[in-house]
UniProtKB/TrEMBL annotation:
Stored PROSITE patterns: CITRATE_SYNTHASE (PS00480)
GO biological-process terms attached to the record: carbohydrate metabolic process; tricarboxylic acid cycle
Family: Belongs to the citrate synthase family.
Protein name per Swiss-Prot or TrEMBL: citrate synthase (unknown stereospecificity)
Protein's UniProt keywords contain Acyltransferase: yes
SUPFAM superfamilies named in the record: Citrate synthase
EC number per UniProt: 2.3.3.16
Record's keyword terms, sorted: Acyltransferase, Transferase
Lineage per the UniProt record: Bacteria, Pseudomonadati, Deferribacterota, Deferribacteres, Deferribacterales
Annotated organism of origin: Denitrovibrio acetiphilus (strain DSM 12809 / NBRC 114555 / N2460)
Amino acid sequence: MGLKDVLKKKIDEQRPRTTKLVKEFGDVKVGEYTIAQTIGGGRGIKSLVTDISYLDPMEGIRFRGMTIPETFAALPKVPGSDYPYVEGFWYLLLTGDVPTVEQTQEVVDMWKEYAQVPQYVIDILRAMPRDSHPMAMFSAAIVAMQRESIFAKNYSEGKFNKMTCWEDMYEDCNILMARLAPIGAYIYRMKYKGDTHIPADPSLDFGANFAHMIGQSKEYMDVARMYFILHSDHESGNVSAHTTHLVASALSDAYYSLSAGINGLAGPLHGLANEEVLRWTQNFLEKLGGEVPTKEGLEKALWDTLNSGQVIPGYGHAVLRKTDPRYTSQREFCLNTPGLKDYPLFKLVALIFEVAPDVLLKHGKAKNPWPNVDAQSGVIQWYYGVTQYEFYTVLFGIGRALGVLANITWDRALGYAIERPKSVTTAMLEEVAGIK
Ligand code: AMX
């Protein structure tokens, strides 16, 4: 059975569960929420449903029920590498099944077939001022391809069918996903490598091809595979996932939805944090003449950052309450890679891990004093020569697309409603509080 047939079977099994919950148990309360949650970004209010990943505050992310180490162990590996195919991971996110080598190969072949970036996208990228942020370029390239949406075309021709429209979304998502790595690579080479380009190598998988197209070493191929998988999904309430879902809930197609999600990812409190972490860490190392500081020197620098009203980038999380396993996974990669293990920048990041949680605890504001994914990822990129900070969020975006596109395929399959939470006025909240 091919991926689409497996997915169809899963969707047919899942639909009655959702329908039953709404029809027979629709009045059952899920929870209660407070004024602080209403004003504070809806934090902790359970108002989204996804089966693709779940974020436990203490344990971190599980993809389809599996922890990060379990996911890496279970998926078919690229021959000659300890890391899995990104394509097999896509299969897992969509179906909940660990694919066989043959099932993985089906996605590898499909994405190769779809990977050609249309010339008009290249023209649009080239027409943008060269100092445009790479995330603006990435988002523009995605939305420019909207004219190719199969979902939008069929909808405009009156062929919308609630039961089968997920199939159009599925096709759009595969085409879009296949093109994201070549688009990212094109932006990278155009902006930072003298506008010289490297064509795709049809013998390589998605992650390896990205490494190849940006002009990286063989070693970086595993970095790309790891990076895309680690950044893929973090349940559906984070800004990029929620935005993608929200826009898709208006029956906007995958191109509009993903482009919107990418715009959300570009914010400093979300995906841009990895750029900020590295800039902050590099500046710090530079001030010390390249020497890794003492614990005392570092502690002082962290307090200086906090006292000047800034956050410690890469630390804290809206949901997590312990060290992000995505941080741990990348830390282990550094510890197991000979040159990286002794790399001064990694040593500094490791020292921050020792010192920052206590400082944040004493500071007493952040609910989570532990590092998130962004505290580690930039160091690895820098070590391999991807030194253009502003590009890091594009890498994040390619990975994040895996999660959000799998989610919106399921949104269509289960017929999730258009989002429309209710607003209140400040006066209404004062009344609820009994102060009026
Ligand atoms: N350094 C200093 N102060 C911090 C902090 C940090 N790393 N993390 C949180 N705080 C502060 C908040 O600014 C807030 O202060 P306020 O009451 O004066 O507004 C207070 O602690 C309570 O915040 P919180 O409930 O713990 O966090 P949140 O859910 O509001 O925000 C996050 C979460 C990630 C935006 C925040 O921890 C932060 O700004 N971290 C640094 C930036 C970062 O690493 N972002 C990446 C997140 C992961 C990702 O999306 N890629």
